Amino acid sequence: MDILYLLIPLSVALVLLILGGLWWAIYHGQFEDIEPEGERILHND
Questions:
Q1: 16, 10 in Cβ contact below 8 A?
Q2: Which of 40, 18, 22, 43 is CA-nearest to residue 31?
Q3: Dist. CA 43–CA 36, nearest whole Å
Q4: Helices (H), 1-45
Q5: Any idea where the domains of the chain sit in the sequence?
Q6: Phi and psi for 23 in degrees, rounded to 5?
Q7: 37 phi/psi in degrees, rounded to 5
Q8: pLDDT, tens digit, for every residue of 20-33?
Q9: CA 26 to chain centroid
Q10: Contacts of 2 (CB under 8 A, 6+ apart)
């Protein structure tokens, strides 16, 4: 039972870290115009 006092805050911190990384990726254009990259690998000359 005492381990929950450690695991719950660590879980919340991990979720906040993941959400922060996702927020950063969205607002810094990491998901903008991703289709050309998929086509680029097919048309490698």
A1: no
A2: 22
A3: 10
A4: 4-27, 35-40
A5: 4-40
A6: -60, -45
A7: -70, -35
A8: 999 999 999 888 87
A9: 9
A10: none
Share of the chain above pLDDT 90, in %: 60
As a whole number of angstroms, the distance between CA 36 and CA 33 comes to 7
Q: Which two tokens stand for residue 13?
A: 């911190």
CA distance 29 to 38: 16
Angle 41-35-27 (CA atoms, 0-180°, nearest 5)? Answer: 120
Amino acid code (one letter) for 31: F
6 contacts 12 by C-beta, under 8 angstroms: no
What is the end-to-end Cα distance of the chain in Å, rounded? 60
pTM (predicted TM-score): 0.67
